[in-house]
Amino acid sequence: MGILKCGYLGPPGTYSEQAGISYFTVDEKLVSYNSIYNIFEGIQSGEIDRGLVPIENSLEGAVNVSMDLLYSNSFVTILAELIFPINNCLLVEKGVGLADITKVYSHPQPIGQSNKFINSKLSAASISYTASTAEAAEIVKGSSDSAVIGSERISDIYGLEVIAKKIQDNDNNFTRFFVIANKLDIGGLVYKKDRDYKTSLICAPRINKSGALYNILGDFAEEGVNLTRIESRPTKRQLGEYLFYIDFEGHRQEKNIKKALDGVQEKSSFFRVLGSYLIEKI
Amino acid sequence: MGILKCGYLGPPGTYSEQAGISYFTVDEKLVSYNSIYNIFEGIQSGEIDRGLVPIENSLEGAVNVSMDLLYSNSFVTILAELIFPINNCLLVEKGVGLADITKVYSHPQPIGQSNKFINSKLSAASISYTASTAEAAEIVKGSSDSAVIGSERISDIYGLEVIAKKIQDNDNNFTRFFVIANKLDIGGLVYKKDRDYKTSLICAPRINKSGALYNILGDFAEEGVNLTRIESRPTKRQLGEYLFYIDFEGHRQEKNIKKALDGVQEKSSFFRVLGSYLIEKI
C-alpha cells in the first residue's frame, strides 16, 4: 500500500510528534493536524492511514476528547497502544544561560508540570502561556533573555539549545497513545498467539441502576480476565447516565474473552469492541 | 456563627456565582476566587466557611481539578450536592440587534456548546475566545457590533441585554456542584432519617489486579446499595494505577451502608468517606 500516512496532534515539536517519530518507521509520513477531531476526520476521509491519539496521562488522567471521539466514530479501530515518557526540557537560543532568563514561555501544561524547577531556578522570571510549545519556541527563537519549556524535539526544529532536562516535578509522567485506523483498511490483521494483546470496549449497562456495572465486571471475573482500566464518560443525554470504557489483557479471539464479551453484550444497551491491539513500549 | 462566607469560582457572572446565588441565602456572603485550588485553601485557612465547587457536567464529564483536590485535602467534607442547569444566553449592549453583531466573545466552553446557534444565526460573525465570560462582557460593554455568550447573571452585573436564551446545542446541560466545608467546623451535623442523602468516597484497591474493583462493588451489591457514579483518577504514581470515586444513595450511618463500607475499607489500601450529604435541586 505504498507509503503510510500517519496523523498526529501538531504542530511539529509536540510530544505527539516525538511519540510518532519513535513509533513509525522512516518509510511512513507523519502529518500534523491541529486537533484530535481532525485526525479522526482524516481517517474517515482516507487522507491518512493511521492516527496517533493521546488517551491518558499518568498525572492528568483521561484525555476526554479522544475518549468521546472513539465513541462517536464507529469506523475506527485500535491497532496498538504506545506508552511514551514525557520529559520537559528548558530550551534557549544558543549562548543564553540560566541566569539570563527573565521570561519563560510555554503551554500551561508543561509549566504546571515544572513548578518546582521554575520556583527554585527561575523564580525571578515572568511566565507567559502560549497555545502550544511550538508557538513558545517561535517567540524564544532569537531572544537573549527568554526560554521555552517543551520536548527535546524542539531543539531539532528550532535550533534551540537544551540547558536542562527532565525538569518536571513528577518523574512518573507518561502518556498512553492509541494508534488508530479505519476498520475498512485493516480487515486482514492476523492474531498471533505469541504476542501480548490488550482489548478495549465501550458499553452502557442496559439498566442504569444498582449493581449494573458490578454484573458486567462479574463476566470478566468469572473468566479470569485481567482488567487494566475502567473509565466512565457521560452519555450527554442525562446527568448521572454513563458510558464505561473498559480495557483488559488478551485478544477478543481467545476463548475465555469471547465468553466474557458475550455476557457483557447481553447486559448492555450499547456495546462496541474498539479493537484488540499490540502493546508497544518506547 | 454570624455571616457565613462562601467561596465560588469567579469572577462575578460565572455559572458558579449564579449557582451560589440560587443556593445560599441573602444572609451569606459570596466570595469570588480565581481558582478551585484557592477555594480549598480558603477553607483550610478559615477565610471562608463554605466552598462551592463544580464536580461534573452532563456534557463534559468530571471536573478533574475538583476530584484531585478532594483527594489531596483531607480536612474537607461534603455538605450538599447541587444540580444546576447551564443556560447560555446571547447578551449585547442595549439597542444592539442580532443583525448588528459582527463579533462574538466568550470562553471556549460556552462557544463550543452553542455551535448550532452560532452557525445559523451568527454565521458571518467572527469568534474570539476570552479567559472568562466576565472578560468577554467587559469587551462587549459599550460596543455596537459585538455580543457575549454567557449566563443571564451577566446582564445584572454589566447592564447588558439578553437577546437570546437557551442557545446551547444540547438542552441536557447540567453541572453538579459540591458544597464543601472544613470538618472541624461542622462536627455537630445531625443525620435526619426523613431526608434524602448521598455519600461519596475515594478508595484504592489493596491489590491493583483482576477483579479488585469487582470485589469492592460486590460489598455494595450485597447490601443493596444503589451506586450513582463511579469515576477513576490516576494515583499519579504509576500509569495504570487508579483511585476510584464512588457515589451512592444513603447515609453512612445507615446499617447496611456501614456494613458495605466496612467491607470496602478492608479491601482498600486507601479509603476515605468524603461525606454524607443532602441532595438539592435548583
Automatic annotation (TrEMBL), chains A, B:
Q: Which residues form the Prephenate dehydratase domain?
A: 5-182
Question: CDD domains from the entry?
Answer: ACT_CM-PDT, PBP2_Sa-PDT_like
Q: What is its EC number?
A: 4.2.1.51
The record places the site described as Essential for prephenate dehydratase activity at T175
PROSITE patterns from the UniProt entry: ACT, PREPHENATE_DEHYDR_2, PREPHENATE_DEHYDR_3
> Which residue numbers delimit the ACT domain?
201-278
| Domain of life where this protein originates | Bacteria
Under which pathway is this protein filed?
Answer: Amino-acid biosynthesis; L-phenylalanine biosynthesis; phenylpyruvate from prephenate: step 1/1
Entry's SUPFAM superfamilies?
A: ACT-like, Periplasmic binding protein-like II
Note the Gene3D superfamilies from the entry.
3.30.70.260, Periplasmic binding protein-like II (3.40.190.10)
GO process annotations (BP): L-phenylalanine biosynthetic process
Q: Which residues form a coiled coil?
A: none
Keywords from UniProt, A to Z, are: Amino-acid biosynthesis, Aromatic amino acid biosynthesis, Lyase, Phenylalanine biosynthesis
Give GO terms: molecular function aspect only.
prephenate dehydratase activity
Catalysed reaction per UniProt?
prephenate + H(+) = 3-phenylpyruvate + CO2 + H2O
Gene Ontology annotations for the cellular component aspect, listed alphabetically: cytoplasm
What NCBIfam families does this protein map onto? PRK11898.1
Q: What is this protein called?
A: Prephenate dehydratase
